[in-house]
Amino acid sequence: MNKLNFFITTVLVVLFSCKKNNNGFSNSNENLGSDTVVNTVKHEVKNSEKNSEKLEKPEYLEGDYCFLKVEGKDSTIVKLRILSDDDIRGEMIWQPWQKDGAVGNLIGKINSMYEMELLYEYTIDGQRQTETKVMKIEKDKLFIKIGELWDSKSDGNLTYKDVSKAVFREIFDPINCK
């Protein structure tokens, strides 16, 4: 967590601790800004305390979302349609400069941590492959977990070797869906 996120989270936690209800969070949104910030803080605080209560669902997890990441001359576009917690569909297009890329479909669901567990089915260099992807939308950006992948059955189906060691390191900016 970078210093700014840590500072904001700490300030909001202090504000919440001043006026608590049964579940430990303020019912008041006064002077706190948008509901998204409040929901994000509740999510982070409950996770950091390893509270066994069910997390509150962020309000923004439904509808159409499109994101872009550009690295040098390479680009990746992710389009998501979140119909329900159990029905997420989309497309991911990786286009490196001067090379063949990968184009494929995403399908999956939202897990108990409000992360999207997706299967990315794509073609690269003429070969069909699948790859597990874990993503989350936070503060209007898309975050993708990066970790060691392996093909346990040597059949072109890549999964995280240990998803608990993977981290949300890849960040995409929002774009208008076309």
Give your account of this protein's structure.
With 178 residues, this protein is α+β, with helices and mostly antiparallel strands. It has two domains: 3-48, no CATH class; 63-175. It contains two helices and ten strands. It has helices at residues 3-18, 35-48; strands spanning 63-71, 74-84, 87-95, 102-110, 116-124, 127-138, 141-146, 149-150, 157-160, 167-175. Strands 1-2-3-4-5-6-7-10 form an eight-stranded antiparallel β-barrel. Strand 3 (87-95) and strand 4 (102-110) form a beta hairpin. The longest helix is centred in the first third of the chain and has 16 residues, at 3-18. The chain is globular, with a radius of gyration of 18 Å.
Provide a compact summary of the structure.
By secondary structure, the chain is an alpha+beta fold. It has two helices and ten strands.
Question: What's the helix and strand layout?
Answer:
Layout: H1 3-18, H2 35-48, E1 63-71, E2 74-84, E3 87-95, E4 102-110, E5 116-124, E6 127-138, E7 141-146, E8 149-150, E9 157-160, E10 167-175
Parallel strand pairs: 6-9
Antiparallel strand pairs: 1-2, 1-10, 2-3, 3-4, 4-5, 5-6, 6-7, 7-10, 8-9
List keywords for this structure.
178 residues; eight-stranded antiparallel β-barrel; 10 strands; globular; disordered N terminus
Strand fraction: 35-45%
Helix share of residues? 10-25%
Task: State the low-pLDDT regions, or none.
Answer: 1-53
Determine the structural class based on helices, strands and strand pairing. Answer: alpha+beta
Shape: globular
The H-and-E topology, N to C, reads as HHEEEEEEEEEE
- Amino-to-carboxy terminus distance: 32 Å
- Our count of helices gives 2
What integer is the average pLDDT? 75
Number of domains: 2
Largest beta-sheet characterization: 8 strands, antiparallel, barrel
The main sheet orders its strands as 1-2-3-4-5-6-7-10
Number of β-strand runs: 10
Rg (CA only): 18 Å
